[in-house]
TrEMBL record:
<keyword id="KW-0624">Polysaccharide degradation</keyword>
<dbReference type="InterPro" id="IPR012291">
    <property type="entry name" value="CBM2_carb-bd_dom_sf"/>
</dbReference>
<keyword id="KW-0378">Hydrolase</keyword>
<dbReference type="Pfam" id="PF00553">
    <property type="entry name" value="CBM_2"/>
</dbReference>
<dbReference type="InterPro" id="IPR001701">
    <property type="entry name" value="Glyco_hydro_9"/>
</dbReference>
<keyword id="KW-0136">Cellulose degradation</keyword>
<feature type="domain" description="CBM2">
    <location>
        <begin position="18"/>
        <end position="100"/>
    </location>
</feature>
<dbReference type="InterPro" id="IPR008928">
    <property type="entry name" value="6-hairpin_glycosidase_sf"/>
</dbReference>
<dbReference type="InterPro" id="IPR008965">
    <property type="entry name" value="CBM2/CBM3_carb-bd_dom_sf"/>
</dbReference>
<dbReference type="GO" id="GO:0008810">
    <property type="term" value="F:cellulase activity"/>
</dbReference>
<feature type="active site">
    <location>
        <position position="563"/>
    </location>
</feature>
<comment type="similarity">
    <text>Belongs to the glycosyl hydrolase 9 (cellulase E) family.</text>
</comment>
<dbReference type="GO" id="GO:0030245">
    <property type="term" value="P:cellulose catabolic process"/>
</dbReference>
<protein>
    <recommendedName>
        <fullName>Endoglucanase</fullName>
        <ecNumber>3.2.1.4</ecNumber>
    </recommendedName>
</protein>
<dbReference type="InterPro" id="IPR001919">
    <property type="entry name" value="CBD2"/>
</dbReference>
<feature type="domain" description="Glycoside hydrolase family 9">
    <location>
        <begin position="155"/>
        <end position="575"/>
    </location>
</feature>
<feature type="active site">
    <location>
        <position position="554"/>
    </location>
</feature>
Length: 595
């Protein structure tokens, strides 16, 4: 029988756990019984959570806790029963469990108590690729050895987690392989004005509106990362999952494109939605839907959706030629719609103006979508259009960000990649040199471009400059920059800003559904006001981030610093994929992995 050494480590943290131990009670051919010994150094009155992680699927029985959630039959979260929510000061909490199904004690790789890591098998390679907290601390593993991993992060785990966040944001009828067990089917009543099926797509943020413009924007960026860094997704086992994430959006866009010059750009009233705090599964009222037409055009919306569909066509080109053709057919029509019938989409859908108003106009999206169509089709007609848009809208200007509203920097770098022309390369270099060398930074080194969703902005530019590095523009400088900025987010700043990953990650994101208790309990504004962590772990979500002085507080009511959105994660995830790609490509095993 394998016996683990007992002394693990002491955490001088909020719950002040010292000398947590794992004890094997008995072991047999296909399982074992174990006990976690957890000394309680601060009284616990409001309940507890124990999370157990294994490196292969297992079945678990635990007598002292209720199973709250599980992922892939390897990660199990238990919460207290009604009678044992209180743990007295200086008591020893013994959490007993039985693991069975061809499992051994060596397959038990980590444990958390109240969101803090208490045990970690630092020698398990499978653990390193699967556990949500592989980084940041000097800890001792189950084998008693100490390992320091400060400044090194498992980017494959980050990719996996970010894709789980996108699954948590899905609307509509969920597939049978849904991995987020606290989410269910929702908004199945979503219809167009003539009864068109508008189910599916993504909820935008902590709310339940389907805003088409930022949804298309994040889809384009997600697809761009999947195109450029397919090897990284393959190596981390996430290639199928990123394709599924992209397709969940593009299938919805195809539904929303009900005729050549009609496209639904929003489902749900933003004001009514923001007055509601509960689960999306509990919403029963019909929701309004708004579309753009020839009479009420929306060039930003149509063009960005064309860009998303075109980029997605490149993702699926090698695996589904029929779907690729469908995507390109809709993309061509939507680009033509955007260019032929011009108008600002927030004028045609006024409800959007308080949420995603178009500040920069539609010229950047026209150029952006034409560039993507040029890349996917090689049709020089689109090069002519890019040139026209450049002149008409002054797209050779130097932008200072890349966002859901302003695609200019992305257009410049994309054209540099497509054409390798010096004029575009110079624009790409000017942008990244500004970001890397001149843009304001916080005391800890975060590039600070805007206060609302500061980490979203830095992730976007980190991804863009990785793209510039990929065509040999200041390669090492930009790679170093992207690494520094992404690692700030993952823990080099002193904490993680990604839910469920690393040290001291956010526990109270501004996100309604994850703030709700398990059903059938009622969820309302009392969940918003609760000081406790969100009952559901919104794995992989990137929060807005700190201010210009690196100040951040984990507060659910702070939607500037602590909301999560689908567009925050897109540039972040694609930048992480880029870092993993460079990491793997430069490793000695690269040729063995991908040849």
């Amino acid at each position: 029988m394998k016996v683990f050494k007992y002394i693990i480590f002491c955490l001088a943290l909020t719950i002040r756990l010292c000398h947590a131990r794992f004890r094997i009670e008995s072991e047999w051919s296909d399982g074992f019984e174990g006990t976690l010994e957890i000394p309680i150094k601060s009284e616990i009155n409001n309940g507890w959570k124990v999370e157990l992680r294994f490196d292969q699927p297992t079945m678990i029985d635990a007598w002292l806790g209720n199973l709250h959630s599980k992922i892939d039959d390897r990660i199990f979260l238990f919460i207290n029963k009604n009678w044992n929510a209180h743990l007295p000061l200086n008591s020893l909490f013994e959490f007993k469990f039985v693991a069975k199904g061809g499992i051994a004690p060596s397959n038990f790789v980590a444990a958390w108590f109240n969101e803090e890591l208490i045990l970690s098998d630092s020698t398990s390679t499978t653990h390193v690729s699967e556990v949500l907290n592989p980084t940041g601390n000097t800890t001792a593993g189950l084998n008693g050895n100490s390992v320091s991993t400060k400044g090194t992060y498992d980017y494959g785990v980050v990719l996996r987690n970010s894709l789980l966040f996108y699954e948590a944001q899905r609307a509509g009828k969920l597939p049978s392989n849904n991995r987020i067990n606290w989410r269910g089917d929702s908004m199945l009543m979503d219809k167009g004005n003539n009864g068109e099926d508008l189910t599916g797509g993504y909820f935008d943020a902590g709310d339940y509106v389907k805003f088409g413009f930022p949804m298309a924007g994040f889809t384009t960026v997600l697809a761009w990362g999947a195109i450029e860094y397919e090897d990284a997704y393959r190596q981390s086992g996430q290639l199928d999952y990123v394709r599924q994430a992209i397709r969940w959006a593009t299938d919805y866009f195809i539904k929303a494109h009900v005729s050549q010059y009609e496209f639904y750009g929003q489902v749900g009233d933003g004001h009514e939605d923001h007055a509601y705090w509960s689960r999306p599964e509990d919403w029963t009222k019909p929701r309004p839907a708004w579309k753009i037409t020839q009479q009420n055009p929306g060039s930003e919306l149509a063009a960005e959706t064309a860009a998303a569909l075109t980029a997605a066509s490149l993702v699926f080109r090698s695996v589904d030629s029929n779907y690729t053709s469908t995507l390109l057919g809709h993309a061509r029509q939507l680009y033509d719609f955007a260019n032929r019938y011009r108008g600002k989409y927030s004028d045609s859908i006024p409800n959007i103006s308080d949420f995603y108003h178009s500040w920069t106009g539609y010229g950047d999206e026209l150029g952006w979508s034409a560039a993507w169509l040029l890349r996917a089709t090689g049709d020089q007609h689109y090069q002519v259009d890019v040139d026209k848009h450049y002149i008409e809208f002054g797209l050779n200007r130097q932008p200072h960000e890349f966002s859901w509203d302003d695609k200019t920097a992305g257009l410049q770098i994309l054209m540099a990649k497509i054409t390798r022309q010096q004029s575009y390369r110079q624009q790409a270099e000017n942008f990244c040199n500004y970001v890397v060398r001149q843009a304001p930074k916080t005391p800890k080194g975060l590039v600070f471009l805007a206060p609302w969703g500061s980490l979203r902005h830095v992730s976007n530019v980190a991804f863009l400059c990785l793209q510039a590095a990929g065509i040999d523009i200041n390669r090492q400088e930009y790679l170093n920059f992207a690494t520094q900025q992404i690692n700030y987010i993952l823990g080099d700043s002193g904490r993680s800003y990604v839910v469920g990953f690393g040290n001291n990650y956010p526990q109270r994101p501004h996100h309604a559904s994850s703030s709700c208790p398990n059903r059938p309990a009622i969820c309302d504004w009392s969940a918003f006001s609760s000081p406790n962590p969100n009952p559901q772990l919104l794995i992989g979500a990137l929060v807005g981030g700190p201010d210009q002085n690196d100040y951040y507080e984990d507060r659910r009511d702070d939607y500037v610093k602590n909301e999560v959105t689908t567009d925050y994660n897109a540039g972040f995830q694609s930048a992480v994929a880029g870092l993993l790609y460079h990491q793997v490509k430069t490793s000695t095993a690269y040729s063995e992995i991908f040849d």
